[in-house]
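ugh finaly. both done.
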Amino acid sequence: MKLTAIRALWDKLRAKGGDKLTAVLEQTATLSRHSAILMRIQHAWRHLPRVHRRLLMVLVPAVVVLALLPSPTPTESSSETFAPQARQPVALNPEVSRSLSSPQASSSKTSSSVKASSSVAASATSKEPSTSEESAWTRHQIESGDTLAKVFRRYDLALTDLYSIANIEGEGKPISRIQPGQWIRFKRTSSGALDILQIETDKGQSALYFRLSDGSFARQR
């Protein structure tokens, strides 16, 4: 009985010693692998340029610190920010709502405003003085030594038009008897040619010559 108990005790001790030995061998193998990996890393580190090693020395700790930082938890303010807002009734002006609800009224108001604006524009146009018409006329007072030919040259008017008017100057001969101090007025066409010529006569009246559709001139009777 004693021998059997001693043998069993021996087997237990040997089993425990084997387990410890196996654990020690596994730890030794793990350390050797880690040392081999460290040797490779150290070898690769030595072959890196100096600038790269400095950058890694700065970036690696920063990445580790960022990885260890706790993730931010949503706050109450953010939940309030994204919370749906409650709709609140807005009081409308009854006149505005009535105008919006009745398209016929709005269209009638629009048409009436358009008519009013057009009538105002028409009245303004009708009330405008004949300044535009007067500005189309050019006045010139005959000076000493002036002739109608000289005046026509000064204002770039065609002398052929002057000759056509001279052929029909008519009663009183206002073109041939032009005197210093008299006034003449003329109006041009859109192309710049002479359209109407008015000559002041010695009796305080005037003679008016105008261009016909065929290009010739006639005297107003």
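ok and the 2nd:
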Amino acid sequence: MACKKNVKVRFYSRSPFGELAKLREYAATQADEAHYLANLNKGHRETNAELAVKLSLHAPNLSTYEFLNRTTFETSPELGRMESLLYERLRFIASNPRAAYDTLWKNIDQLGARLDSSNLTCSSKIGHLS
């Protein structure tokens, strides 16, 4: 993300993103990084400092302002509603939406558990879904 200027990241969670989402909203209202840093309130300064520490470990060349402006946070719906929405979307892109859903669920579950039963990378697993 740090080296590719056009990369955008979207985080999904069933829980709200709290102070980080508030900081992201604030960053979106600022004209540039200088204004962003100059106008941070106390709560935002604390969240920004925590984020800066985490970024320094994983993306040291990425500022908090740049990260926040290239990131969106989305709170996911309840599992039942999410499943319905996925089926609706899969109907348009898969001849067998149930099989596609089951395959996606299995592969995402394995990725979440850090299991790799077939030694395929994530991108090649997704390529086999169509």
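summary for the 2nd one i guess: Residues 4 and 62 are 10 Å apart (CA to CA).
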